[in-house]
Sequence to fold (325 residues):
Amino acid sequence: MARKKQPEEHENLERWMVSYADFLTLLFATFVVLYALSQINLEQFKNLEVSMKKAFSAPSLIQGDKNIMDGGDNILDSNPANSMIDSLMLEMVSPAYEQDSFEQIKKEIEAMNKTGELDGVSASIDERGLVIKMNDKNILFKSGSADLSPEAKKMLDVIGKLIVQKFAMHMIKVEGHTDPVPSSGRYPSNWELSSARASSIVRYLQGTFKILPDLFSAVGYADTRPVDKSKTKEAYAKNRRVEIVVLRNQIKNLEHFQNSFMSLPKEEQQKLRNQQVDIVNNMENQEIKKIEERLKKNQQAAEQAPSTQTELNYWKETNKIDSLK
Fold:
């Protein structure tokens, strides 16, 4: 009796699905991480990292090797400069943090403009980033001069505090503008005058708040970009202005951005950031002392004491810069 012919082995044509499933899983993980970078805070991002490692700790479906994330460095510490301190991570990677910070600074400037603390200062947000406009009104500079007045330095102290509390790595562009009246004195034209005024503000902010120099740029536009084209004194006063622009991260490459913080070791980053924090804290403490002194002087004037006490409470409640360390 003849032996039965064994049936031919059926070739598995669906083996590709295993590799395809692995590919889709990795692709999904990539998009989850990208979404997380732009939407969540740093603590949530670290939790996501731990969860992702646990999720991929099982052997590969095909080779049974080590999990796909074993042996790699922490993704927060993968750059040559030993990464960044935690307080700077959100500033670099999160558009949501950037936009929220812009809006908070804008809101505070608007409030201080109404109280008169930042008279002549306004803020707006556009495609470039946060634009802080300081109208001159012969307060910032004397006519034909680029020397900052004491009033201008007080304004810049307030503005600088607001910026450095939120940003340490963003580029800051300072733009000087003049009216069409020809310059007289040591500056041959309004081009040199507007550039010198922008440079004076850069020099003051950089020296006062220890902001890295290569994060700044100073530009003079003379009278070529007026906000009011009429030929009146009021229009000229509006056109004499300085604009401080905190640029969005997405356009930093267009400004030949050099990421100085990324090139520093973590210890140097933390040291510099602590210096900035201490500067802001000292300014806050000095302001509180001034208010306390006024409160003591006004204790005998019952109608003045309540308002001063309210002002003191406000400064104490808003003095939260320590959280940035």
